[in-house]
Amino acid sequence: MIARQSQNVYKSIHARCMISAEQLIVLLFLGLFFLELLTEFCLNEANLRYVRKRLQDQNIPKFLRAKLTPETYQKSVRYTLAKGSFERWSQIYGRAVTIFVLFGGVLAYLNHFSQNLGNGLPTWTQATGIIFCLSASLVVSVLSLPPDLYHTFVLEERFGFNKTSPALYLTDKLKGLALGFVIGVPFLFVVLSVMRSAGFYWWLYAFLFILAFQLLLVIFYPTLIAPLFNKFTPLEEGELRQRIMLLATQLGFQTSGIYTMDGSRRSAHSNAYFTGLGRSKRIVLFDTLVKEATIDQAVAVLAHEIGHYKLKHVRKRLILQSAFLFLGLYLISLLLDYEPFFHAFGLEQPSHYGALVLFAFVSGPFTFYLSPLLNHVSRKHEYEADRYAVQELRNSKPMEEALIKLTVTNLSNLTPHPWYSAYHYSHPAVAERIQAIQGLALEQQ
Ligand SMILES: [Zn+2]
Fold it and tell me: Is there a contact between 102 and 361 (Cβ–Cβ < 8 Å)?
């Protein structure tokens, strides 16, 4: 009797002290979630303070002083500060959206909604799952409109970068939605079907399928997708075209053509890139670059881009991303039948589609800590491509000038806080890049 009583007391104490697996998941998630927010906030504040201090010192990096008017420098600082204070609020807003979706009953509502719509259709169509995933991403897109609108029509507008009209903005969004639907439906259909019927190793098959799918997108992006948003015109005959073709032949870079893109329809920011695979690669120059850079500078930018290709940066990046995808899918496979994971975020029953959407929302605070690593690799590749361009052109001046020109036209931050740039910059700060290039020039002499 006494033994039983003490057992009961023990049980009730145990029940009071123990937190359920569900609560533990919520606590762990929230802990990491707010740690991420705090880290982002502190990095941004440190960066803003650092830039403001440089403004008071009138401290322009030496080699830029000759190229930059004090007005342009002041404007770049004002732009950086404006972007920083926008980031402060948009970060908080974005996190509030995540909390609302995960704990505000949104997922449970969408689950009922998609079950009602999808249950009339045969199971093999995966209709319920597809509707759930697409409607969840639609909800997030709609909720992220306010900061996006502010960024385009207030922030970028104020500094003269925005060229997007409200009508163009609206058609861009609608095209994006339609494209998401056209690509998303078959993609989700295959992934959900594999999850349902491929057994224990579904995540391995899904991994292979997603790799193949990405490859298809890379192949069709330049000819089918990019033209939906921009006009691509073959670069007109002339010195620039001749010089680029000569460079491509010299460097053994096969291309199906050189195009200019009407980037100026949306923004005054300037750039160049290449897309596609194998022989079908296209070189794309923003019309803003063609207009503002000299021929030598544009050729240097192209040599840098070809450097990325020749040094196999694209491939290395793809391998790294595939490793993360592989790991992510394996983790989803572990969580697939674990009920507390679903209950923690308001879903009554485990489901394949629920696991995909929950993982997309919940993984953010975990993957956040990988971004400095990815950015570190990316910055290393930028230095390597700069080195390639300088060595192949046997001249460091055009690359240096092109970087300064891009920095001036884009009003880039000249003096980012070292921690901020280490965390967030996919490209080294321009001062660091130019110093490295000048070091190469000394080596060559
Ligand atoms: Zn680059």
Answer: yes
What is the Å distance from ligand 1's center to 128 Cα?
Answer: 42
Q: Kindly tell me the burial class for residue 13, based on how many C-beta atoms sit within 10 Å of its own C-beta (0-12, 13-18, 19 or more).
A: exposed
Residue 114 CA to residue 349 CA, distance in Å, equals 14
pLDDT value at residue 276 = 78
Alpha-carbon distance of 128 to 124, in angstroms, equals 10
The whole-chain average pLDDT of the chain stands at 89
For the question of residue 262 being annotated catalytic, the response is no
Please report, rounded to a whole number, the percentage of residues in the chain having pLDDT higher than 90.
Answer: 62
CA end-to-end distance (rounded Å), the chain? 95
Judge whether 74 and 413 are in contact, CB under 8 Å.
no
239 catalytic, yes or no?
no
Side-chain half-sphere CA neighbours of 362 within 13 A: 24
CB 121 within 8 Å of CB 52 = no
Cα 302 to averaged position of ligand 1 atoms, centre (Å): 10
Rounded to an integer, what distance in angstroms lies between the CA atom of residue 311 and that of residue 305?
Answer: 10
pTM for this predicted structure: 0.85
